[in-house]
Amino acid sequence: MVQAWYMDESADDPRRPHRAEPSRPVGLEQLRRLGVLYWKLDADKHENDPELEKIRKERNYSWMDIITISKDKLPNYEEKLRMFYEEHLHVDEEIRYILDGSGYFDVRDKDDKWIRIFMEKGDMITLPAGIYHRFTLDEKNYVKAMRLFVGQPVWTAYGRPADHLDARGQYVRFLAQTA
């Protein structure tokens, strides 16, 4: 089961858990109200998994690739990690399926507070278009993830503030409806 919690305000190493004190865990229902979807799958059979294929078909995830984020596998590793950790949004969903290793997705709640979502092997997440978020590795410094898209991938990240974008406006309206 996915682990998620409100973060502390520390500017310490982002690869640490950063759990708020006292602890404030976040459940799947609270993530769903933010538009964040989660599945637990068998990453060892990702190449022939009927459950993954069913999700891909239902959600029209037609494009896929695999990225490995580690010092020895990703060109410009330090620069890319800094870029992934900058707060941003996309105008399309962001879908990630962890095949090996682990890391954190941080998302903003309706009150603009950070929620940290720990992702490990078998976890698949969909972040809605328009949600402010960021990603970092944990202290193991390694993750292998499947990236899925509806149609051709669009890699554009819009740094905050990006409230003028239609995707952000639609997301804010979605939050108001789920409140």
Automatic annotation (TrEMBL):
Belongs to the acireductone dioxygenase (ARD) family. Keywords: Amino-acid biosynthesis, Cell membrane, Cytoplasm, Dioxygenase, Iron, Membrane, Metal-binding, Methionine biosynthesis, Nickel, Nucleus, Oxidoreductase. Its cofactor is Fe(2+); Ni(2+). It comes from Vulpes vulpes. Residues 1-24 are annotated as: Disordered. Binds either 1 Fe or Ni cation per monomer. Iron-binding promotes an acireductone dioxygenase reaction producing 2-keto-4-methylthiobutyrate, while nickel-binding promotes an acireductone dioxygenase reaction producing 3-(methylsulfanyl)propanoate. Coiled coil: none annotated. Fe(2+) binds at H88, H90, E94, H133. This is Acireductone dioxygenase. InterPro entries: ARD, ARD_euk, RmlC-like_jellyroll, RmlC_Cupin_sf. GO terms for biological process: L-methionine salvage from methylthioadenosine. Residues 12-22 have a biased composition (Basic and acidic residues). GO terms for cellular component: cytoplasm; nucleus; plasma membrane. It is a peripheral membrane protein. Its EC number is 1.13.11.53, 1.13.11.54. The keyword Oxidoreductase applies. Pathway: Amino-acid biosynthesis; L-methionine biosynthesis via salvage pathway; L-methionine from S-methyl-5-thio-alpha-D-ribose 1-phosphate: step 5/6. The gene is ADI1.
